[in-house]
Amino acid sequence: MPPPETPLTPDRVLEATEDVLRRFGPAKATVVDVARALGVSHGSVYRHFRTKAALREAVTERWLDQAHDELAAIARAKGPAAERLREWLATLFAAKRRKAGGDPELFATYLSLADENSGTVARHVETMVGDLTKIVESGLASGEFTTRNPRKTAQALWSATAHFHDPVYAEEWSDPGAELAFADLFDLLLNGLRA
Amino acid sequence: MPPPETPLTPDRVLEATEDVLRRFGPAKATVVDVARALGVSHGSVYRHFRTKAALREAVTERWLDQAHDELAAIARAKGPAAERLREWLATLFAAKRRKAGGDPELFATYLSLADENSGTVARHVETMVGDLTKIVESGLASGEFTTRNPRKTAQALWSATAHFHDPVYAEEWSDPGAELAFADLFDLLLNGLRA
DNA sequence: GCGATGACAGATTTCAATATCTGTCATCGC
DNA sequence: GCGATGACAGATATTGAAATCTGTCATCGC
């Protein structure tokens, strides 16, 4: 138990938690493990996070927000809405595929965290649909798209593309035909959006 | 152990298995339970199904095929393809919603059976996409729809409507807005299909 | 004074002994 | 002869006692 090199911050606790989750998996990772990794008593961890559940929720949120800067930028950008819609969806799909394929065990770990934190996931989905709504609205403004209700259309788009972003379909993402299936679906949807 | 009223047939075994699954759930139902329900020794059950897994697979297949006569009739019928597509999807959605909402515990039981039998489920999905392909082809023939590849389009439709037939989304089916969300999505897709 | 500590109670998990189940097959009785 | 039986071996599940974990808090040392 060496004295702490740096003061204990929520961020350092989160980092240690991620390490412990990586090493032991979601079922075995304990608060005591996190404290041990930090060289402090587990009481100190509880100073920064009220419960183990809160700690795991914070880690989940961090993971879900990972790719969001890039996506938000596409949603905010100028240019043809159709192009940006395709790019936004393709970027999302690519990010998911990278996470799922790169380290399947870690992906499974975060999946089980997401299962525990449906509220956090719902908020994340809200953000995603918000991005899509922005794109649909800009397409409506430019005359590219026709729709009565951009938000509902965005929700329909989110729903319709679930196969390419919902982790329950992760197994199918490594299928060689996945890119083509995505293109087919996107064409159908884009055609539906057009005036 | 009364003597069997009727000769032991695969069908009687299946029926008894369904009963046992209903009563004990997928985790607790055993072959010995099924035999007991039939008033025979468990050895006799193994005369009709090679393994417990085969028995459970047969029950799963039966459950998946339940609503299919009605759907196949819609796919084969005459009339506007758009109408039939809407009816086919609406009928599927209604059937799923009925099963999930009517007896959630039994639904959960069959879900866990489906999880064990991915091959059987894949074959069932093939059948469903086959129905959709028929409808898309008839729409193409009548000039209602435009598409390069009816089968791929049918797959895209299956994908896109997952929120309303994939059991992973069953929780959302009881949401009061579900019908509206379905209508929004269907309109978008139908618009995409049109010439 | 203030963050860190570790003993503690109650909840949860682990582990090993025990019981039950699956699948086979030699044997039975009709 | 032929379907049904139940004893059996190995695999799987259950159970309850022991170990560990979560969350609290009185106390410590800087």
From TrEMBL, chains A, B:
It comes from the Bacteria. It comes from Streptomyces himastatinicus ATCC 53653. One of its GO terms (molecular function) is DNA-binding transcription factor activity. Pfam families: TetR_C_27, TetR_N. Residues 7-67 form the HTH tetR-type domain. Signal peptide: none annotated. This is Transcriptional regulatory protein. Residues 30-49 bind DNA. Keywords: DNA-binding, Transcription, Transcription regulation.
